[in-house]
Amino acid sequence: MASVTLTSTSAAVVPAMRRGDAPRRRRAMGDATATATATVRCGGGCRRGGVREAISPSIDEDAGTSVDDDDAMNGCGGASVLSSSVAMSRGGAGATTLAQRAKQRATGLRKPSAFGVVPDACARVDFAVIGSGIAGLSYALDAAEVGDVAIITKASAFEASTSYAQGGISAVVDKLDSVDEHVRDTCIAGGYLCDERAVRVMVEDSRAAVQTLIERGTRFTRRESDGALHLAREGGHSRHRIVHADDMTGKEIERALLEAAQAHPRITFYEHHFAMELLKTRDGESPRCTGALVVDEASGMTTAFVASSTVLACGGAGHLFPSTTNPVVSTGDGVAMAMRVGATVANMEFMQFHPTALFTGPGGATKLVANENAFLITEAVRGHGGQLYNALGERFMSRYDAREELAPRDIVARSIDSEMKRTKSNCVFLDITHVGADEIRANFPGVAAELAKRGLDMTTERIPVVPAAHYMCGGVSTNENGETSLRGLFACGEVAYTGVHGANRLASNSLLEGVVFARRAVASVTDEINALRAELPALDVDEDELRRWLEKECLALTRACATSSAFVTKDDAWERDMRAEIQRTMWNAAGIVRTTVEMEDALRKLQTLSRACEDRAAVCSGYTMGTAEISNLIVVGRLMLRCALMRKESRGLHYTLDYPEPVDDEKKPSFIVEDVAADASQRAPTSPR
Predict the structure, then answer these.
(1) What is the C-alpha to C-alpha distance for residues 236 and 383, in angstroms, rounded to an integer?
(2) Can you tell me the distance from the alpha carbon of 346 to that of 196, in angstroms, rounded to the nearest whole number?
(3) Does the N-terminal or the C-terminal CB of the chain have fewer CB atoms within 10 Å?
(4) Structure pTM?
(5) How far is CA 81 from CA 112, 144, 258, 558, 617, in A?
(6) What is the DSSP string of 391-446?
(7) 518/510 Cα distance (integer angstroms)
(8) Are the C-beta atoms of 631 and 606 separated by less than 8 Å?
(9) How do beta strands 686-687 and 463-472 pair?
(10) Angle at 367 between CA 361 and CA 368, to 5 degrees
(11) What distance in Å separates the CA atoms of residue 35 and residue 139, rounded to the nearest whole number?
(12) What is the pLDDT of residue 55?
């Protein structure tokens, strides 16, 4: 293991790239309503130039058959059908008190408006941050030096994917390491589809990012001998460069950032508040995002947060699949909301399956609760000498890659999948028993403790493991400053496509990406915050005046109406069965190994499920949280399948039997832009960089 010392001096400020003087705009940063003949430029990762882009009809287009009203009524409490003509009425919105609006909700008499449905409350803030992981909290702490921040999170603030990250944060802090080596490792792991410019931006700021986390209270593991940071090594890395807090790094980072944010006087948390939709102005030539419509999960009351800057930092979509290491909040909400307001998304075909999640099926470890998420066995176990064995007791990685257990995650996951199919077994086994017991417990105390709860001793027993959905490498397309294709909307963390991960994420680059691009986004928006503020009502605007502004300036919302009964349902049979059907469909068609026929069938199936979901919301007079999440999962699943069908090759995490080899002409990102005027998905002409 290597070590390094970081001083306690302040981290350098990240220079902002201003909107007007950036040397290039990410190829997806053009107008999201462009026609199918738009020309889009290619970024640094596209070594042969060009992109693939689909400009498509609405993501919720009608297709397939709908459910019967009796089926849709299951769990709705006898709610009446919501007429689309009422939901999208152009009637006026008179000023009412909060109590009156609550009564209207309870009786189903809420006034319709050109905005969709009158929100129960309106609030004007400078920064609306949706999500409370490392990206959202890093953004909020920096933004709070400029203005007031509202952090909106649909569970407790700690329940973010960051809390479940084990391995660490990659950074060039060792004198034996270099930026060029880290960039090279990242691009190799990413199947040479990474945007090398964005990768370099991230890596060059890695030391400062770690320093910022330390200054905000993160306690990383250090050597007892000299107090230097202890550096681990993980698959795909040529050096020891993983800064970590034992084997529960994300939990420690989340603790430190949460404590800092909760103590800041300009940051307000809205826990258990669900972001339903993004707000967008009607201006056809230069629309902008103006905030979000948010539902209080306890009461079902809606609040329109009108924000100078809105930031998506709400993670990925692991719950598209039946087995995932992600927390329950990871239902693709950010990507789905962005898509519905016309923001560009990219590279959605690249879903990373972590190779070594604990297997709790027949013959595996003990389950602690019936519906628990897959417990992650950190990459660092293999980096520390862990070896993989199949059900026959054979080591097998040498048959697939010369790097064996230290190969990138996509290769290891496919190798495990192949061995499970070859041996007709439910799992493989990770063995680190050849390492001393004290050393194992010292380096992996969290993993050892979790396994011990299940009656498994990793110092003497092999660990049953299987691949599980882990990380979404695509997302809402941004430039190096977190700017999306819609003015006023930023994205950071797993929800964003920055270009750094390419076709496969290198281990421990995700936490780094979250910090670096959140800081850059704040630096960028600070330069134009006064202009963004001036485009909206004043920060001290009267609530009724703010409501009238929304009515006049913002587009009607398609999902503005939450159910007048319980917004959060418990053990709803329709929601449970629908989720299970989506997950089966996605695993069969968009899992580790794919085929064109299966993906096309799955796309048609999701279209049918989409209609069923919309019918359910209509019969129930609005969305429950479960229905809204299912709708978002369907949107993201369809994006994933459409991007995968556009790629006529296998690269990184996308492996299809119909095109099993990489193809140079296909070495380009996949983009999807919503355009209701387009007749079908098609490729846009491209121009070289």
Answers:
(1) 9
(2) 16
(3) N
(4) 0.83
(5) 15, 43, 42, 16, 9
(6) TTS-B-GGGT-TTGGGS-HHHHHHHHHHHHHHTT-S-EEEE-TTS-HHHHHHH-HH
(7) 12
(8) no
(9) unpaired
(10) 170
(11) 34
(12) 52
